[in-house]
Amino acid sequence: MMDMNTPLAFVKMHGAGNDFVIIDSLHRAGGVMTAALAAAIGDRHRGVGFDQLAELRPSDTADLDLDFWNADGSRAGACGNATRCVAHMVMAARGLDRLRIRTARGVLIAENRQGQIWVNMGAPLLNWQDIPLAQDCETDHLPIAGDPAAVGMGNPHCVFFVADADSAPVAEQGRKTEHHPLFPQSTNVEFASVTALDHLRLRVWERGTGITLACGSGACATAVAAHRRGLTGRQVRIDADGGQLLVDWRDDGVWLSGPVAHVFDATLPAEFLAGLA
Question: Which of 85, 158, 215, 220 is catalytic?
Answer without folding.
Answer: 215
